[in-house]
Amino acid sequence: MPKLVLAYSGGLDTTTAIKWLAVERGYEVIALNIDLGRSKEQPVVEERGLAAGALKVRVIDAKEDFVRYFAFPALAAGAVYQDAYPLATALARPLMAKLLVDVAHEEGATAVAHGCTGKGNDQVRFDVGIQTLDPSLEIVAPTREQAMARETQIEYLKQHGIDIPWGDKGPFSIDENLWGRSAEAGVLEDPWQEPPAEAYEWTRSAEEAPAEPAYLEIGYEHGMPVTLDGAEINPVDLVERLNDLGGLHGVGRVDHIEDRLVGIKSREIYEAPAAVILLVAHRALEAMTLSKQQIKLKKYIGAEYAELIYNGLWFSPHHQDIAAYVASTQRHVSGTVRVRLHRGNATVVGRTAPASLYDRGLATYDRDDTYDQSAAVGFISIWGLQTRVQARRQLLGELPETLKIAMPRGDA
Prior knowledge:
This protein is an alpha/beta fold. It has two domains: 3-159, Rossmann fold; 173-352, Argininosuccinate synthetase, chain A, domain 2 (Alpha-Beta Complex). The chain has 15 helices and 14 strands. The chain has helices at residues 12-23, 45-51, 63-77, 88-107, 122-133, 142-146, 150-159, 235-248, 273-289, 292-310, 317-329, 360-363, 375-383, 385-395, 401-404; strands spanning 3-7, 28-35, 56-61, 111-113, 138-140, 173-177, 180-184, 214-221, 224-228, 231-232, 253-259, 265-271, 335-342, 345-352. α3 packs across α4 (88-107) and α4 (88-107) runs parallel beside α5 (122-133). The termini are far apart. The model has no long low-confidence stretch (mean pLDDT 93).
C-alpha cells in the first residue's frame, strides 16, 4: 500500500480523513501532528489518530521554529493583513507544508493530505507550498473532495468501528496557535451582530479587565524581541507571557471583515494579545531608528509582505527579496520600549534606542536648543520655489475653481 502523510489536528475532520484515506483511497496513513501551541486537541491526538486507523502518529513540537522563523520575521516586517489581522493561521501553514514534505521524504510517502475546505485560504497555502517544495508529491484533500457534514463524518467513523465521544460542537469554527486565535461562523456570519462573549477565550472584555494598568518593557535586537522587563527570554515563553498578560487586560481583540483569496468576504474574530503588543512596541522603536523615507517605504513593504503571507507565497522568490529588504531595515532597530496595558489598549509610553535618530537638542524649545532657526528662511525659499514658478507661469493670477472653494469669503 502506498504511504501518505496527513496534516493531523486531532479534530473530527482530519480524524475522519484518516479512515477515509485508508478505506476509500487505499493509503497507509501517517498522521503528522504539528504542535504550534494552544491546541485543545493536543493531549488526545495520538490516541485518536491510532483509533482511526493511522499506521503511526508523529508529533512534532514546532513552537519555537514557528515563533522564531515565521512570526518574528513577520513582526519585523510590520505585516498585518488589511491593517487588522496579524496572520496567525496564515503564518502557520508554510511551516506545516514544509514539515509535511520533510516527513513524506523520511517515511517514503508518495502523497500528502490536509483537511482544508474548498472555500478557504488554507487550501491555497498548503497546496502552493507543497507543490513548490516537492511537485512530485500527490496532494489529497478529503474535506474539499467529500464536504461531509459533521453528523455524516461521525456516522462514517461509527460504520467502521470507531466511536469517539466528540462532545457538542461549539458555536464557532476555531483555529489557534501561539500567535493568535480565530473564530468564525455561527452568529458571527451576521456582520451587524455584536460578537457574543463566548466568541472570546484568550481575552477579557475591557469592562472586566483590571482597573489598574500593567507596565512592561520589551527589549529588541535588530527588530526581534529578546527581553521582557530586562530579562532575556526565549521566543515561546515571551509570546506565552504576553498572551496571558495582554489577555488579562483585554488587549488583542480584532473584529474584521476581510477579503479571502478566493474572493469571499468573511467576518473573522481574532485574539492576538502578544502579536498586538509586540507590533505596537516594534513600530514605536522603528519611529526612533528609521528615517522618514524608510518608514514610508516600509509601510508599503509591510502591507505587501502581509499579502504574500496571506496568499500562500511564503516560498516564493518575491518573499526572499522582501525579506532581504526587511532585514536591512532592522540593522539599527534595537532598544527598549515601555508599554502600558489597560482595558483593551496597549499604549507605548516610553522608548530608548542606542542608534536613535531622535535628537533632543534639535527637538527642544528650551535654552539648550541647538537648531539654527535662521536657516529656515532660506530653506523655505528653496522649498517653495517650484510652487511659486508654477503659479506665475500657469495660474496667471487666477485661482482654479477647485481652489477657490477653499478660500475665505466675504470681507475677510
